[in-house]
Design goal:
Layout: E1 6-9, E2 13-17, H1 23-30, H2 33-36, H3 47-63, E3 68-73, E4 79-86, E5 94-100, H4 109-125, E6 134-135, H5 141-146
Parallel strand pairs: 5-6
Antiparallel strand pairs: 1-2, 2-3, 3-4, 4-5
Helix pairs in contact: 1-3
Length: about 150
């Protein structure tokens, strides 16, 4: 089994690039009706869309140097969710996207991973944490403002 490239760690989490073996975990998170209402158009994703999203993400790694990533719990090594820098519908400005398995909601993982992703974007890809360069969905603003420096 190939281990995908780790991009950063937080106190409890590891963030790494996507791997084809993540397909089922990605599908399980983004096909969940309750969790999907906070992501994109609010609709659950199909298996075919998940496969296409994997391909788009791999292309983004090549063309942009970043994209979606898998979030693992350090203590268990289990996949708990996903986070990344994306450009939905081809928008010019990067946006942070994240979602976690429902079993891991309420553990503060979003508050932990978002600052790590912002730092990664700022440091590795020279993305700035400004409202003009990093757009955030209204539902996620509290996480952003809690972690502003």
């Amino acid at each position: 089994m190939r281990v995908a490239k780790e991009i950063f760690q937080t106190e409890r989490l590891i963030c790494r690039l996507w791997d084809r073996e993540d397909l089922e975990a990605i599908y399980s998170v983004y096909s969940d009706e309750e969790g999907s209402r906070w992501v994109g158009d609010g609709q659950p994703i199909s298996r075919e869309e998940t496969i296409r999203w994997l391909d788009v993400t791999f292309n983004n790694y090549t063309t942009r140097g970043y994209g979606m990533s898998t979030v693992l719990e350090k203590a268990t090594g289990d996949i708990v969710g996903f986070c990344g820098l994306v450009h939905p519908d081809g928008q010019q400005l990067a946006e942070i996207k994240y979602s976690f398995k429902r079993t891991h909601w309420g553990l503060g993982y979003a508050s932990e991973i978002v600052p790590g992703m912002i730092s990664y974007g700022n440091t590795v890809h020279v993305l700035r944490k400004s409202s003009q360069l990093l757009q955030l969905k209204t539902a996620h603003l509290s996480v952003y403002y809690k972690n502003r420096t």
